[in-house]
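Predict structure. Chain length: 326.
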Amino acid sequence: MRFNLFLLATLLSSTLLAADKALFTAQAASHNVTLTGFTRARTAMTLSSEIAGKVEQLFSDIGQPIPDKGEFACLDKTFIKLDIQYNTAEQAGHRVDIDYFSKQVDRYKKLVKLKNSAQQQLENAEREFFSAQNQLAVTQVQAKILAERKRRYCIAAPKGWLTKERLIEPGQWINKGEPIAKLGDFSRLLIPFALSMEEYQVLRSNKDDIRIRLPDLDTIVPARIERISPAFDEQSRKIMLELEISSGPAQYRGGLRAELTLSLSDKSGAILAPISALKQQYEQYWLKKPDGEQIRVVYLGKTSSGYAKVVSPAIKAGDQFLINTE
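Prediction complete.
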C-alpha cells in the first residue's frame, strides 16, 4: 500500500514537472521559389479591311487607344456615296412607275366593265404594275447592301484597345483582307508561367490570395488564375498557365517583369525550431524531447522569421521538444 502511494506520488510529480516545461511542436521547413514571367495584353488581334479603298482618316496611332466611336480608320467614300445616290434615284423612278401603273390598272378595270377595252390591256397594265413593285423591292435590298458596305468603309475596332502596330498611312490604297494594324487589350494583363506539379498545387491552394511583384514598378499587385492548359509540354514537362492582373499600375503595358513567389516544402526533411530550443555543445546542436532524450541535429541556418532550420533522421514535423528556459 505504501509502495503504491509512493509510485502515484512520483508519477504525479513527474506530470506536474513536465507540464511546467515549455514545449514546441516541430513544423516542416519550407523554401521560397521565385518564378519570373513578363506581362502581355489580355487579348491581341490583327485588324484587316473588308473592302478595298484609299485611306482617308486614321483615328489611332501606335500606343494610342481606339476612340469611343470604335473606329480605327475610314476609307474614301466618294464612289459608295454616288452608288447610294444612284440607288435613291432608281427607287424614286420605280415609285413613279408604281403610281402610274396603279392608276392604269384602275382605269382599265373600269373600261373592261363597260366593255370599252380589251382584257389584254388590263393584264398588260397589271403586269407592268407588279413589275414596277418587284423592281422597287430589288432596289430597296440593294440600298441595304450599299448602306452596309458604306458602314464598312470605316474599319471597326474595340474601343479602348491600344494600337501596337500601324501598317497603313493616310492616302494609301489597301486591298480587301489586307492587315492594317495590330491591337491589344491592355486593360488587363496576362502573365504566362510554367509550373511543376508541386508548384501548381501550392498555387491552387492559395488561389484566393495570389500576389505578383512587379520589380520594374516596385509594387505588388493581386492576381488570379485565368487559364490552365490541359496539354502536356514535352520540353519543360510542366503545367502551362496564365495569371491575370487587372489592378495596380496606372499604365498597363506588355513586357513588365513579374515575379511569382511560392513557398514549397523542404525535401531534406528539415524542421523549424525556436532558437531557444537548441542546445549547443562545442560544434554540435541538440534538441531535447519531453522525456529528456537529447536528439542531435544538423543546424542549417536561421530563417528570416527568426527560427532555426535543423534536420535529423530521428525527428519529423509534428514531434514535440522542450524549449530551453534557462
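Summary: Residues 105 and 125 are 5 Å apart (CA to CA).
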